[in-house]
Amino acid sequence: MHARLALAAVLSAGLLACSPIHRSHGYAPSEEDLSAISVGVDTRDSVAELVGPPTMGGVMRDEAWYYVQSDWETVGFREPKETERQVVAISFDGSGTVENVERFGLEDGRVIALNRRVTEANVKGISFLRQLLGNIGQFSAEDILGDR
Question: Which residue, of 23, 57, 85, 130, is most buried by count of CB atoms within 10 Å of its CB?
Fold first, then answer.
């Protein structure tokens, strides 16, 4: 009797371990929130009031603000898999007025524009990938060791 109960407990625990765990990271404003932003009218301050500033300082630049949200799923012992990514880019002109609002998604390993409110210009400034990889190869031994 105890063996059956133990076997049932082990099988139940095994089945529960295989159920997916969903996690969300970051924040991207909804379409409804973005529709309140007027290109050519709103400024950095009004965007911060309407949708909030980006949650990470590294994605907040003078030329553009980037909001990134990712959804992840983990099943059992497997590594987490990204199921959805939203990137919202709000670019500003030199006077701080909204110049462009774009939403990107990650599908099949490529960044796809899901929504572009102004199509004549792309997001200005440094791309996200360039920010990540920008300092590779920029250091020399002299920079680290200094003059001795």
Answer: 85
